[in-house]
Amino acid sequence: MRRASVAAVLLLVVACGHDRGPTSPTTNPPPVTEPDPLRAAAGAAGKLVGTAVQSSLLNDPRYGGVFARHFDFVTAEYEMKWDPIERTRGAEDFSGGDAIVAYAAARGMQVKGHALVWHQAVPSWVNGLPAADLRTELDRHIRSVASHYRGRVLAWDVVNEAIDDNGFGLRDSIFRQKLGDRYIADAFRSAREADPQALLFYNDYSGEGLGGKSDAIYELVRSLLAQGVPIDGVGLQMHVRAGAPPPESSVAANMRRLAALGLRVNISEMDVRVGDLGGATPANLERQRSVYRSLVGVCVAEPACHAVTFWGFTDAHTWITSTFGPDAPLLFDAQYAPKPAFFGVLDALARR
Ligand code: XIL
Fold first, then answer.
1. Can you name the residues that pair with 170 across neighbouring β-strands?
2. What is the DSSP letter of 315?
3. Cα–Cα nearest to 52, from 96, 7, 4, 108
4. Is 9 or 261 the better-scoring residue by pLDDT?
5. Does 160 contact ligand 1 (Cβ within 6 A)?
6. For the segment 224-274, what is each residue's pLDDT rounded down to a tens digit?
7. For residue 296, how far is its CA from the centre of ligand 1 (angstroms)?
8. Closest Cα to atom 3 of ligand 1
9. pLDDT score of 219
């Protein structure tokens, strides 16, 4: 790659010199060199590298171009959640997720389904259901969606964010209120029946390093395994701030203890905020690069960590700005140019 681009520059200089005489560097813009694909480096390390996407953007040539070049794993950012699939009771619409799955299949990418049971993106008609109906409808939803994508997804986030941030008990969602704690085990069992091949994950945030929340996640999945519930792994979302990332050694230790239960792990929704540090200054982008490099490096070094997924790839499209305010948390800037963060990830995947 590097040698090829040097050759290209030489060729350009020689060609221009021949045609138009000596030229100054200002009249010859530097050739655009594409960085090495992330997916090649990830593949060499035995990992998948993924991103969340929105189907409506796939036909934008810049968005599609960067996505297809760099990633071999994809998650629907929104379109495989319950609300977009079944805004009207009984009328399922899989068009968004189907478009993403078809795009991925045509390019040799794997797909992560996200998310069958989550307290957000729940259709409004679900909220008023009596307990018995909620049990029936949730189970039907899990089986219907997992069956629809059977054979086309590598993995599912079956239950997302079920642990509360205060006290780290189970979140007081409508699922827990009306169905009791067993809704989690039931969800995994139904997902396994509907798609016996897919890897089934529990996914959550703020439990990346050791601490109260990750202890609660560990205890939850340990007890599911002890009950014989089919669960294959834990997703660590990794929505972090460049100024306060979880320590590398702590994330490594947490991954290790989950792996020791026989589970896989992945980094499932990574982004690194710089907004509260003052935005995308060169110094902050350098801090961001080093956080990406260090935490992706933890997955690269952990055999049980099979994938790293970023929650988008261009700062032009990130949930962070609508949720937390102006920011630049991803690997490519809003013009799709690779940022220092991109090269931090590339270095981590290439074990540099
Ligand atoms: C967010 C998406 O980015 C938004 O586009 C959507 O409207 C709401 O959900 N944790 C998760 C993700 O598991 O599903 C969330 O994604 C971000 C936090």
1. 163
2. T
3. 96
4. 261
5. yes
6. 999 999 999 999 999 999 999 999 999 999 999 999 999 999 999 999 999
7. 21
8. 319
9. 98
Domain positions in the chain: 38-349
Q: Per-residue pLDDT tens for 192-213? A: 999 999 999 999 999 999 999 9
Residue 305 pairs in a beta bridge with 265
CATH topology of domain 38-349: TIM Barrel (3.20.20)
On the question of pLDDT at 20 being above 90, the answer is: no
**233-236 and 48-53 strand pairing:** unpaired
| Nearest protein Cα to ligand 1, atom 16 | 77
Distance (Å, rounded) from C-alpha 63 to C-alpha 59?
A: 8
The pLDDT of residue 51 is above 70? yes
Residue 185 carries which DSSP code? H
Give the pLDDT score at 30: 64
Single-letter amino acid, residue 273:
R
Tokens 């982004």 locate to: 271
Token output for 132:
């018995």
> Does residue 161 carry a catalytic annotation?
yes
- DSSP lists the bridge partners of residue 338 as 332
CB 53 within 8 A of CB 67: yes
Q: How far away, in angstroms, is 205 Cα from ligand 1 center?
A: 11
Task: Return the amino acid letter for 232.
Answer: D
Per-residue pLDDT, averaged over 146-153, amounts to 98
Strand partners, 75: 52, 112
Handedness of CA 292, 295, 297, 300 (dihedral sign): negative
Query: Of these residues, 79, 86, 161, 208, which one is catalytic?
Result: 161
H/E run at residue 111: strand 110-118
Question: Which one, of 165, 163, 157, 286, lies nearest residue 234 by Cα?
Answer: 157
| Chain CA centroid to CA 292, Å | 14
- Rounded distance, CA 221 to CA 203, Å? 11
CB 138 within 8 A of CB 99: no
Task: Provide the token pair at 100.
Answer: 């993403």
How is residue 156 written in tokens?
Answer: 């599912």
Residue 155 DSSP label: E
Give me the chain's average pLDDT, please.
93
CA geometry: angle 21, 25, 27, nearest 5 deg? 70
CA distance 149 to 233: 19
